[in-house]
Protein backbone atom coordinates (compact mmCIF):
# COMPACT_ATOMS: atom_id res chain seq x y z
CA UNK A 1 0.00 0.00 0.00
CA UNK A 2 2.84 2.41 0.82
CA UNK A 3 4.43 2.06 -2.63
CA UNK A 4 1.03 2.45 -4.34
CA UNK A 5 0.29 5.59 -2.37
CA UNK A 6 3.72 6.95 -3.21
CA UNK A 7 3.20 6.29 -6.93
CA UNK A 8 -0.23 7.89 -6.77
CA UNK A 9 1.29 10.98 -5.19
CA UNK A 10 3.85 11.22 -8.01
CA UNK A 11 1.09 10.91 -10.59
CA UNK A 12 -0.76 13.84 -9.06
CA UNK A 13 2.44 15.93 -9.12
CA UNK A 14 2.85 15.49 -12.85
CA UNK A 15 4.56 12.14 -13.45
CA UNK A 16 1.87 10.23 -15.35
CA UNK A 17 4.52 8.70 -17.63
CA UNK A 18 8.13 7.53 -17.29
CA UNK A 19 9.20 9.92 -20.04
CA UNK A 20 7.86 12.92 -18.14
CA UNK A 21 9.88 11.92 -15.07
CA UNK A 22 13.07 11.69 -17.14
CA UNK A 23 12.41 15.14 -18.62
CA UNK A 24 11.86 16.52 -15.12
CA UNK A 25 15.20 15.10 -13.93
CA UNK A 26 17.02 16.55 -16.91
CA UNK A 27 15.45 19.96 -16.48
CA UNK A 28 16.36 20.13 -12.78
CA UNK A 29 19.88 18.62 -13.19
CA UNK A 30 19.64 16.03 -10.43
CA UNK A 31 22.80 14.23 -9.24
CA UNK A 32 21.97 11.41 -11.66
CA UNK A 33 23.47 13.51 -14.44
CA UNK A 34 26.19 15.61 -12.81
CA UNK A 35 28.10 15.99 -9.54
CA UNK A 36 28.55 19.44 -8.03
CA UNK A 37 31.84 18.57 -6.31
CA UNK A 38 34.94 19.80 -8.13
CA UNK A 39 38.37 18.50 -7.05
CA UNK A 40 39.79 20.52 -4.16
CA UNK A 41 43.29 20.84 -2.80
CA UNK A 42 43.54 19.13 0.60
CA UNK A 43 46.17 20.49 2.97
CA UNK A 44 47.98 19.26 6.05
CA UNK A 45 47.96 22.09 8.57
CA UNK A 46 50.11 20.41 11.23
CA UNK A 47 50.39 17.33 13.39
CA UNK A 48 51.38 16.58 16.97
CA UNK A 49 52.02 13.56 19.15
CA UNK A 50 52.54 12.67 22.73
CA UNK A 51 56.10 11.54 23.44
CA UNK A 52 56.39 7.91 22.35
CA UNK A 53 57.29 5.83 25.41
CA UNK A 54 58.27 2.22 25.89
CA UNK A 55 55.33 0.34 27.33
CA UNK A 56 55.36 -0.10 31.07
CA UNK A 57 57.00 3.28 31.76
CA UNK A 58 55.47 6.69 32.58
CA UNK A 59 52.13 6.05 30.85
CA UNK A 60 51.55 2.64 32.43
CA UNK A 61 48.66 3.69 34.71
CA UNK A 62 46.73 5.52 31.98
CA UNK A 63 44.32 4.32 29.31
CA UNK A 64 44.58 4.68 25.54
CA UNK A 65 41.70 7.12 25.86
CA UNK A 66 43.90 9.45 27.98
CA UNK A 67 46.62 9.57 25.34
CA UNK A 68 44.13 10.17 22.52
CA UNK A 69 42.50 12.99 24.49
CA UNK A 70 45.91 14.53 25.16
CA UNK A 71 46.83 14.47 21.46
CA UNK A 72 43.57 16.25 20.59
CA UNK A 73 44.14 18.90 23.25
CA UNK A 74 47.77 19.36 22.19
CA UNK A 75 46.80 19.79 18.53
CA UNK A 76 44.28 22.49 19.34
CA UNK A 77 46.69 24.27 21.69
CA UNK A 78 49.49 24.26 19.12
CA UNK A 79 47.52 25.49 16.12
CA UNK A 80 45.08 27.67 18.10
CA UNK A 81 42.08 26.82 15.97
CA UNK A 82 38.53 27.00 17.37
CA UNK A 83 37.20 23.52 18.04
CA UNK A 84 33.93 24.49 16.38
CA UNK A 85 35.50 24.40 12.90
CA UNK A 86 36.20 20.65 13.16
CA UNK A 87 33.37 18.79 11.46
CA UNK A 88 34.55 15.22 11.90
CA UNK A 89 37.14 13.21 13.85
CA UNK A 90 38.60 9.85 12.87
CA UNK A 91 41.18 7.88 14.86
CA UNK A 92 42.98 4.61 14.35
CA UNK A 93 43.66 1.99 17.00
CA UNK A 94 44.71 -1.67 16.96
CA UNK A 95 44.61 -3.14 20.48
CA UNK A 96 41.11 -2.01 21.35
CA UNK A 97 40.04 -1.22 24.89
CA UNK A 98 36.53 -2.66 25.16
CA UNK A 99 35.26 0.15 27.41
CA UNK A 100 36.13 2.78 24.80
CA UNK A 101 35.58 0.82 21.60
CA UNK A 102 34.94 3.99 19.58
CA UNK A 103 37.92 5.75 21.08
CA UNK A 104 37.71 8.64 18.61
CA UNK A 105 34.33 9.65 20.03
CA UNK A 106 35.26 9.18 23.69
CA UNK A 107 38.53 11.10 23.36
CA UNK A 108 36.84 13.92 21.44
CA UNK A 109 34.21 14.41 24.14
CA UNK A 110 36.88 14.37 26.85
CA UNK A 111 38.97 16.91 24.89
CA UNK A 112 36.11 19.39 24.89
CA UNK A 113 34.72 18.88 21.40
CA UNK A 114 31.01 19.35 20.85
CA UNK A 115 28.75 16.33 21.22
CA UNK A 116 27.50 17.36 17.77
CA UNK A 117 30.89 16.49 16.18
CA UNK A 118 30.75 12.93 14.79
CA UNK A 119 33.73 10.64 15.27
CA UNK A 120 34.63 7.09 14.37
CA UNK A 121 37.51 4.66 14.83
CA UNK A 122 39.33 2.62 12.17
CA UNK A 123 41.79 -0.25 12.37
CA UNK A 124 44.31 -1.43 9.79
CA UNK A 125 47.20 -2.67 11.92
CA UNK A 126 50.33 -0.50 11.68
CA UNK A 127 48.77 1.78 9.04
CA UNK A 128 45.65 2.65 11.03
CA UNK A 129 46.32 6.38 11.29
CA UNK A 130 47.24 6.44 7.60
CA UNK A 131 43.76 5.01 7.10
CA UNK A 132 42.40 7.74 9.39
CA UNK A 133 44.11 10.41 7.29
CA UNK A 134 42.97 9.02 3.96
CA UNK A 135 39.44 8.46 5.23
CA UNK A 136 39.44 12.15 6.11
CA UNK A 137 40.80 13.00 2.67
CA UNK A 138 38.00 11.01 1.07
CA UNK A 139 35.33 12.77 3.10
CA UNK A 140 36.78 16.15 2.12
CA UNK A 141 37.20 15.17 -1.54
CA UNK A 142 33.53 14.12 -1.68
CA UNK A 143 32.48 17.50 -0.32
CA UNK A 144 30.96 16.05 2.85
CA UNK A 145 33.19 18.06 5.21
CA UNK A 146 35.88 20.73 4.96
CA UNK A 147 37.78 20.32 8.26
CA UNK A 148 38.76 17.01 9.84
CA UNK A 149 41.03 15.83 12.64
CA UNK A 150 42.72 12.47 12.03
CA UNK A 151 44.91 10.58 14.45
CA UNK A 152 45.81 7.32 16.08
CA UNK A 153 46.57 5.84 19.48
CA UNK A 154 48.09 2.70 20.89
CA UNK A 155 48.54 1.61 24.48
CA UNK A 156 50.62 -1.51 24.97
CA UNK A 157 51.02 -1.11 28.75
CA UNK A 158 47.56 -2.57 29.32
CA UNK A 159 46.39 -4.88 26.58
CA UNK A 160 43.02 -6.68 26.75
CA UNK A 161 43.43 -10.18 28.22
CA UNK A 162 40.34 -12.38 28.28
CA UNK A 163 39.24 -15.39 30.25
CA UNK A 164 39.47 -18.62 28.28
CA UNK A 165 36.59 -19.33 25.94
CA UNK A 166 35.26 -22.12 28.19
CA UNK A 167 35.32 -19.80 31.19
CA UNK A 168 33.59 -17.04 29.23
CA UNK A 169 30.88 -19.47 28.17
CA UNK A 170 30.43 -20.60 31.77
CA UNK A 171 30.17 -17.02 33.03
CA UNK A 172 27.54 -16.18 30.43
CA UNK A 173 25.53 -19.23 31.44
CA UNK A 174 25.88 -18.28 35.11
CA UNK A 175 24.56 -14.85 34.34
CA UNK A 176 21.41 -16.43 32.90
CA UNK A 177 21.00 -18.99 35.69
CA UNK A 178 17.80 -18.36 37.65
CA UNK A 179 18.45 -20.31 40.83
CA UNK A 180 21.28 -20.87 43.28
CA UNK A 181 21.16 -24.59 42.41
CA UNK A 182 21.75 -23.89 38.74
CA UNK A 183 24.68 -21.61 39.57
CA UNK A 184 26.24 -24.19 41.90
CA UNK A 185 25.90 -26.83 39.22
CA UNK A 186 27.81 -24.61 36.79
CA UNK A 187 30.53 -23.99 39.40
CA UNK A 188 31.11 -27.70 39.81
CA UNK A 189 31.85 -27.99 36.08
CA UNK A 190 34.87 -25.64 36.28
CA UNK A 191 38.23 -27.28 35.51
CA UNK A 192 41.72 -25.87 36.22
CA UNK A 193 42.35 -25.39 32.47
CA UNK A 194 39.49 -22.89 32.36
CA UNK A 195 41.65 -20.38 34.27
CA UNK A 196 44.33 -20.18 31.58
CA UNK A 197 43.92 -16.67 30.08
CA UNK A 198 43.27 -15.97 26.43
CA UNK A 199 46.11 -13.62 25.43
CA UNK A 200 45.97 -11.32 22.38
CA UNK A 201 47.43 -13.06 19.36
CA UNK A 202 51.01 -12.19 18.46
CA UNK A 203 50.74 -14.22 15.27
CA UNK A 204 49.06 -13.64 11.93
CA UNK A 205 45.64 -15.30 12.01
CA UNK A 206 45.98 -16.48 8.42
CA UNK A 207 49.43 -18.05 8.80
CA UNK A 208 49.78 -18.52 12.58
CA UNK A 209 53.29 -17.05 12.28
CA UNK A 210 54.62 -14.19 14.41
CA UNK A 211 55.80 -11.11 12.56
CA UNK A 212 59.27 -11.60 14.07
CA UNK A 213 59.54 -15.01 12.44
CA UNK A 214 58.35 -13.46 9.17
CA UNK A 215 61.04 -10.81 9.54
CA UNK A 216 63.72 -13.44 10.03
CA UNK A 217 62.55 -15.44 7.00
CA UNK A 218 62.41 -12.31 4.84
CA UNK A 219 65.94 -11.27 5.83
CA UNK A 220 67.20 -14.78 5.08
CA UNK A 221 65.46 -14.79 1.69
CA UNK A 222 67.26 -11.59 0.70
CA UNK A 223 70.60 -12.65 2.19
CA UNK A 224 70.67 -9.95 4.86
CA UNK A 225 73.16 -10.64 7.64
CA UNK A 226 72.76 -10.01 11.35
CA UNK A 227 75.55 -7.43 11.11
CA UNK A 228 73.69 -5.49 8.41
CA UNK A 229 70.55 -5.47 10.55
CA UNK A 230 72.43 -4.19 13.60
CA UNK A 231 74.13 -1.51 11.51
CA UNK A 232 70.79 -0.25 10.20
CA UNK A 233 69.30 -0.21 13.72
CA UNK A 234 72.30 1.77 14.95
CA UNK A 235 71.76 4.22 12.07
CA UNK A 236 68.13 4.73 13.09
CA UNK A 237 68.96 5.38 16.75
CA UNK A 238 71.89 7.67 15.86
CA UNK A 239 69.79 9.80 13.51
CA UNK A 240 66.90 9.97 15.99
CA UNK A 241 69.24 11.04 18.82
CA UNK A 242 70.72 13.73 16.59
CA UNK A 243 67.24 14.97 15.55
CA UNK A 244 66.15 15.02 19.18
CA UNK A 245 69.23 16.99 20.27
CA UNK A 246 68.90 19.48 17.40
CA UNK A 247 65.23 20.14 18.14
CA UNK A 248 63.83 18.72 14.92
CA UNK A 249 61.16 16.59 16.62
CA UNK A 250 58.82 19.54 17.07
CA UNK A 251 55.75 17.34 16.70
CA UNK A 252 56.33 16.09 20.26
CA UNK A 253 54.20 17.98 22.79
CA UNK A 254 55.17 17.65 26.49
CA UNK A 255 52.63 15.86 28.65
CA UNK A 256 52.15 16.27 32.40
CA UNK A 257 51.04 12.76 33.22
CA UNK A 258 48.85 12.51 36.34
CA UNK A 259 50.76 11.14 39.36
CA UNK A 260 54.11 11.33 37.53
CA UNK A 261 56.42 13.95 39.01
CA UNK A 262 58.38 14.99 35.91
CA UNK A 263 56.80 16.29 32.71
CA UNK A 264 57.19 13.74 29.92
CA UNK A 265 58.80 15.74 27.11
CA UNK A 266 60.65 13.33 24.81
CA UNK A 267 60.65 9.85 23.33
CA UNK A 268 62.36 7.46 25.73
CA UNK A 269 63.30 4.57 23.44
CA UNK A 270 66.16 6.28 21.60
CA UNK A 271 69.42 4.60 22.61
CA UNK A 272 72.69 4.80 20.71
CA UNK A 273 74.60 1.60 21.47
CA UNK A 274 77.93 0.34 20.18
CA UNK A 275 78.21 -2.41 17.56
CA UNK A 276 79.74 -4.62 20.25
CA UNK A 277 76.74 -4.15 22.55
CA UNK A 278 74.32 -4.98 19.72
CA UNK A 279 76.30 -8.05 18.77
CA UNK A 280 75.89 -9.54 22.27
CA UNK A 281 72.08 -9.72 22.03
CA UNK A 282 70.54 -13.09 21.32
CA UNK A 283 68.03 -13.74 18.51
CA UNK A 284 64.48 -13.08 19.66
CA UNK A 285 62.57 -15.43 17.37
CA UNK A 286 64.48 -17.95 15.24
CA UNK A 287 67.02 -19.36 17.68
CA UNK A 288 69.98 -19.61 17.56
CA UNK A 289 70.51 -18.39 13.99
CA UNK A 290 67.95 -15.62 13.48
CA UNK A 291 68.93 -12.01 12.95
CA UNK A 292 65.99 -10.23 14.64
CA UNK A 293 66.86 -9.06 18.17
CA UNK A 294 65.37 -6.68 20.71
CA UNK A 295 67.67 -3.95 19.36
CA UNK A 296 66.93 -4.20 15.64
CA UNK A 297 63.15 -4.55 15.94
CA UNK A 298 60.60 -1.88 16.85
CA UNK A 299 59.62 -2.08 20.51
CA UNK A 300 56.23 -2.09 22.24
CA UNK A 301 55.25 1.55 22.54
CA UNK A 302 52.55 3.76 24.06
CA UNK A 303 51.60 6.95 22.26
CA UNK A 304 49.06 8.99 20.32
CA UNK A 305 49.15 11.40 17.39
CA UNK A 306 46.76 13.84 15.74
CA UNK A 307 46.66 16.05 12.65
CA UNK A 308 44.43 18.79 11.27
CA UNK A 309 43.54 18.56 7.58
CA UNK A 310 41.17 20.67 5.48
CA UNK A 311 40.56 22.21 2.09
CA UNK A 312 43.09 24.82 1.03
CA UNK A 313 40.24 27.28 0.57
CA UNK A 314 39.13 26.83 4.19
CA UNK A 315 42.68 27.18 5.49
CA UNK A 316 43.06 30.53 3.71
CA UNK A 317 39.70 31.70 5.07
CA UNK A 318 40.89 30.87 8.59
CA UNK A 319 44.26 32.54 8.12
CA UNK A 320 46.16 29.25 8.56
CA UNK A 321 49.33 28.44 6.64
CA UNK A 322 49.44 24.73 5.83
CA UNK A 323 52.65 22.75 5.91
CA UNK A 324 51.93 20.54 2.93
CA UNK A 325 49.45 19.40 0.34
CA UNK A 326 48.11 15.87 0.73
CA UNK A 327 48.35 14.63 -2.84
CA UNK A 328 48.07 10.94 -3.69
CA UNK A 329 47.58 7.76 -1.73
CA UNK A 330 47.01 4.09 -2.39
CA UNK A 331 46.90 0.78 -0.54
CA UNK A 332 48.31 -2.60 -1.53
CA UNK A 333 48.08 -6.15 -0.29
CA UNK A 334 50.00 -9.29 -1.09
CA UNK A 335 50.85 -12.78 0.19
CA UNK A 336 50.70 -12.55 4.02
CA UNK A 337 53.09 -15.48 4.41
CA UNK A 338 56.19 -14.89 2.30
CA UNK A 339 55.63 -11.19 1.55
CA UNK A 340 54.08 -9.96 4.77
CA UNK A 341 56.52 -7.06 5.18
CA UNK A 342 57.09 -6.05 1.56
CA UNK A 343 54.32 -3.42 1.43
CA UNK A 344 56.73 -0.54 0.65
CA UNK A 345 58.20 -2.38 -2.35
CA UNK A 346 54.75 -2.91 -3.85
CA UNK A 347 53.28 0.47 -3.02
CA UNK A 348 56.15 2.83 -3.91
CA UNK A 349 56.08 2.20 -7.69
CA UNK A 350 52.28 2.41 -7.69
CA UNK A 351 52.14 5.73 -5.85
CA UNK A 352 54.93 7.18 -8.01
CA UNK A 353 53.03 6.19 -11.14
CA UNK A 354 49.81 7.75 -9.83
CA UNK A 355 51.67 11.01 -9.19
CA UNK A 356 53.64 10.82 -12.48
CA UNK A 357 56.90 11.03 -10.51
CA UNK A 358 60.05 8.94 -10.36
CA UNK A 359 62.37 8.04 -7.48
CA UNK A 360 64.68 11.01 -8.12
CA UNK A 361 61.79 13.50 -7.92
CA UNK A 362 61.21 12.64 -4.25
CA UNK A 363 63.41 14.46 -1.72
CA UNK A 364 61.95 13.13 1.54
CA UNK A 365 61.34 9.45 2.33
CA UNK A 366 59.57 8.42 5.55
CA UNK A 367 59.26 4.65 5.66
CA UNK A 368 57.98 2.69 8.64
CA UNK A 369 60.67 0.54 10.26
CA UNK A 370 59.11 -2.63 11.67
CA UNK A 371 62.46 -4.47 11.68
CA UNK A 372 65.87 -3.53 10.35
CA UNK A 373 65.82 -6.67 8.23
CA UNK A 374 62.44 -5.68 6.79
CA UNK A 375 63.76 -2.28 5.67
CA UNK A 376 66.88 -3.78 4.12
CA UNK A 377 64.81 -6.44 2.33
CA UNK A 378 62.58 -3.76 0.83
CA UNK A 379 65.60 -1.75 -0.31
CA UNK A 380 67.04 -4.85 -1.99
CA UNK A 381 63.71 -5.67 -3.62
CA UNK A 382 63.38 -2.11 -4.96
CA UNK A 383 66.88 -2.43 -6.43
CA UNK A 384 66.26 -5.81 -8.08
CA UNK A 385 65.41 -6.25 -11.77
CA UNK A 386 64.53 -9.89 -11.04
CA UNK A 387 62.03 -8.97 -8.33
CA UNK A 388 60.51 -6.24 -10.49
CA UNK A 389 60.05 -8.62 -13.42
CA UNK A 390 58.71 -11.56 -11.40
CA UNK A 391 56.54 -9.81 -8.82
CA UNK A 392 55.91 -6.19 -9.77
CA UNK A 393 55.09 -6.65 -13.43
CA UNK A 394 57.84 -4.22 -14.43
CA UNK A 395 60.60 -4.62 -16.99
CA UNK A 396 63.21 -3.10 -14.67
CA UNK A 397 63.79 -2.28 -11.03
CA UNK A 398 62.13 0.62 -9.22
CA UNK A 399 65.43 1.92 -7.87
CA UNK A 400 66.72 2.98 -4.48
CA UNK A 401 66.52 6.58 -3.26
CA UNK A 402 69.42 8.56 -1.84
CA UNK A 403 69.67 7.11 1.68
CA UNK A 404 70.57 10.57 3.02
CA UNK A 405 66.91 11.39 2.34
CA UNK A 406 65.63 8.15 3.91
CA UNK A 407 64.30 8.43 7.50
CA UNK A 408 66.77 11.23 8.18
CA UNK A 409 65.38 11.78 11.70
CA UNK A 410 65.33 8.11 12.63
CA UNK A 411 62.31 5.87 12.45
CA UNK A 412 60.11 3.41 14.27
CA UNK A 413 63.10 1.33 15.42
CA UNK A 414 64.33 4.25 17.53
CA UNK A 415 61.48 6.73 17.97
CA UNK A 416 59.02 3.96 18.78
CA UNK A 417 56.01 2.38 17.15
CA UNK A 418 52.61 2.78 18.84
CA UNK A 419 50.91 0.81 16.07
CA UNK A 420 48.03 3.10 15.15
CA UNK A 421 49.85 6.37 15.90
CA UNK A 422 52.81 5.87 13.56
CA UNK A 423 51.08 6.94 10.33
CA UNK A 424 50.45 10.51 11.50
CA UNK A 425 53.98 10.65 12.94
CA UNK A 426 55.32 9.75 9.49
CA UNK A 427 53.13 12.42 7.87
CA UNK A 428 54.18 15.18 10.26
CA UNK A 429 57.86 14.30 9.92
CA UNK A 430 57.44 14.33 6.14
CA UNK A 431 55.85 17.79 6.21
CA UNK A 432 58.47 19.20 8.57
CA UNK A 433 61.37 17.68 6.65
CA UNK A 434 60.05 19.04 3.35
CA UNK A 435 60.28 22.51 4.87
CA UNK A 436 63.61 22.14 6.68
CA UNK A 437 65.31 20.34 3.80
CA UNK A 438 63.79 22.56 1.08
CA UNK A 439 62.25 19.69 -0.88
CA UNK A 440 59.07 19.58 -2.95
CA UNK A 441 57.82 15.98 -2.65
CA UNK A 442 57.82 13.42 0.14
CA UNK A 443 56.75 9.77 0.21
CA UNK A 444 55.30 7.87 3.15
CA UNK A 445 55.23 4.08 2.93
CA UNK A 446 54.55 1.34 5.45
CA UNK A 447 53.85 -2.35 5.74
CA UNK A 448 51.13 -3.77 7.96
CA UNK A 449 49.88 -7.08 9.32
CA UNK A 450 47.92 -9.14 6.84
CA UNK A 451 50.42 -8.42 4.06
CA UNK A 452 49.07 -4.91 3.47
CA UNK A 453 50.73 -1.56 2.86
CA UNK A 454 50.15 2.13 2.26
CA UNK A 455 51.80 4.79 0.14
CA UNK A 456 51.16 8.53 0.35
CA UNK A 457 52.65 11.58 -1.36
CA UNK A 458 52.87 15.02 0.24
CA UNK A 459 54.00 18.24 -1.41
CA UNK A 460 55.51 21.21 0.42
CA UNK A 461 53.16 24.16 0.73
CA UNK A 462 54.53 27.52 -0.54
CA UNK A 463 55.66 29.67 2.37
CA UNK A 464 55.27 26.87 4.91
CA UNK A 465 57.15 27.06 8.20
CA UNK A 466 57.95 24.48 10.86
TrEMBL record:
Report the record's Gene Ontology biological process terms. Answer: fatty acid beta-oxidation
Q: Which Pfam families match?
A: Thiolase_C (PF02803), Thiolase_N (PF00108)
Q: Which GO molecular function annotation, any one, does this entry have?
A: acetyl-CoA C-acyltransferase activity
In this protein, which residues make up the domain named Thiolase C-terminal?
A: 320-460
Determine if Mitochondrion is one of this entry's keywords. Answer: yes
Cellular component terms, GO, for this chain's entry?
Answer: mitochondrion
Question: This protein's superkingdom?
Answer: Eukaryota
**EC numbers on record:** 2.3.1.16
Keyword terms, alphabetized: Acyltransferase, Cytoplasm, Fatty acid metabolism, Lipid metabolism, Mitochondrion, Transferase
Q: Does Hydrolase count among this protein's keywords? A: no
Where is the protein situated, by its record's location annotation? Mitochondrion
Q: Where is the Thiolase N-terminal domain?
A: 43-313
**By its UniProt entry, which PANTHER family does this protein fall under?**
ACETYL-COA C-ACYLTRANSFERASE, TRIFUNCTIONAL ENZYME SUBUNIT BETA, MITOCHONDRIAL
Q: Which family does it belong to?
A: Belongs to the thiolase-like superfamily. Thiolase family.
Know the name of this protein?
A: acetyl-CoA C-acyltransferase
- Species for this entry: Bombus impatiens (Bumblebee)
